[in-house]
Amino acid sequence: MKICMVGTGYVGLVTGACFADMGNTVVCVDIDTDKVAGLNRGEIPIYEPGLSEMVTRNRKAGRLGFTTDLDAAVNSSLFCFIAVGTPQGENGGADLRAVLSVAAAIGRTMNDYKLIVTKSTVPVGTAAKVEAAVKEQIDKRGLDLEFSVASNPEFLKEGAAIEDFMKPDRIVVGCDDEKGGGLLRDLYSVFCRTSDRLLAMDVKSAEMTKYAANAMLATRISFMNEVAAICDKVGADIAHVRVGIGYDPRIGSKFLFPGLGYGGSCFPKDVRALINTAAENGIAAEVMQAVDVVNNRQKAVLFARAGEVIGDLGGKIFAVWGLSFKPKTDDMREAPSLVLIKHLLANGCHVRVYDPVAMEEARKELGDRVEYMADQYDCLNGVEALFLVTEWGEFREPDFARMKSLMKSPLIFDGRNQYEPSRMRDKGFEYYCIGRNND
Ligand SMILES: NC(=O)c1ccc[n+]([C@@H]2O[C@H](COP(=O)([O-])OP(=O)(O)OC[C@H]3O[C@@H](n4cnc5c(N)ncnc54)[C@H](O)[C@@H]3O)[C@@H](O)[C@H]2O)c1
């Protein structure tokens, strides 16, 4: 099938490559000319395991191309996916300008039937706006062209995006007309061979499903962070509590890890967008407001703990391990590391950072205000303390003796509960983590 994928970011590039890998012909469109030129030279703009190989393979096979020419891409395709960004806009709502400008551009150029599919995360009612934007342009041209609009929200996780797309736990397709719905079922049939996980529903429910999913996941995180804070005060251990509740099948064990709060390009903005949608409809989304408040507070807990333990932080040197908002990605959007580092800098600290893949992205945000280290151990030379912020695999079992010999004092603030507190004490470290500070 012929597919045009507009927006070549984390979602568009992965889904475009995966569709091509299934034999479809995919043209990815972006307004970022540098990004498109780089992709055409074989340069992958993001870090995502397996993506580079997949893009290379499909480019070579002639099934995957990159362009800034939206008109040609639309007119050579039956499916037009919109996978552009929907960042937080005014009042916390989603900024739909990119989505609607792409919709208008499709309407300005299409010459025959198109199935226009919103893959970006968009509030309920956006499909109707997309439809109106396309139709307005077709009307202006004095034409009467048939098209369908569908919502097909994406559930992939950065760091495991290809696996998630190729083996989805569900595919949500919202389409209010049979032709569009049928075409999407055909397109996705290859991903449903083992079991049919395509959930067909109306457009509004599909749009809502994505926000409800992210809000639920964010709620679990904030809930666990709140319970962890209580654990610290009352002398309980969140590691035991987590397992103790996770065995209840109504709760389940996934996504119950306390930490430094959720970040990334989705949860923070999607929770706020849903709060905004609720408010626009006369509902105070109090649970989600609390989820957001707890999350913002959580991003500062390690910094606060360091102040309690060390006192005045000014002029001291600190190491930060891990910058990306989670492992296996270089995405720095709303990363908890940024909040911690900005607090440290504002307090006159010298900050040394190390991340296996995200330092280039981090530099865009932090510039030269921190010292970037090529090695996780070099980062520790003479530091007052280490903050462990992102749970990359290489931080799981480091050379503790070497660490101790390098650090000015053996003090670790672990925002991801990577180590056993008693073991750390035995090794001679002063160790603080989240919800386990009582033994
Ligand atoms: N990143 C994720 O893990 C994830 C997961 C599920 C859903 N989503 C949703 O998918 C959407 C895209 O997210 P992302 O992380 O891929 O964003 P991104 O910022 O990585 O990529 C967006 C791309 O769209 C391009 N773009 C912007 N305006 C354009 C236009 N008018 N024409 C053509 N290209 C344009 C940008 O240049 C950029 O390359 C968002 O709505 C997001 O909420 C993201």
Overview of the structural elements:
This protein has about 450 residues and is α/β, with parallel strands linked by helices. The protein has three domains: about 200 residues, Rossmann fold (3-Layer(aba) Sandwich), CATH 3.40.50.720; about 90 residues, N-(1-d-carboxylethyl)-l-norvaline Dehydrogenase, domain 2 (Orthogonal Bundle), CATH 1.10.1040; about 130 residues, Rossmann fold (3-Layer(aba) Sandwich). The protein is about 45% helix and about 15% strand. It has 17 helices and 14 strands. The strands form two sheets. It has an eight-stranded mixed sheet, sandwiched between helices. A six-stranded parallel sheet has the order 11-10-9-12-13-14. Helix 1 packs across helix 3, helix 9 crosses helix 11 and helix 11 runs antiparallel to helix 12. It is globular, with a radius of gyration of 24 Å. The mean pLDDT is about 95. The protein binds nicotinamide-adenine-dinucleotide. Nicotinamide-adenine-dinucleotide binds next to helix 1 and helix 5.
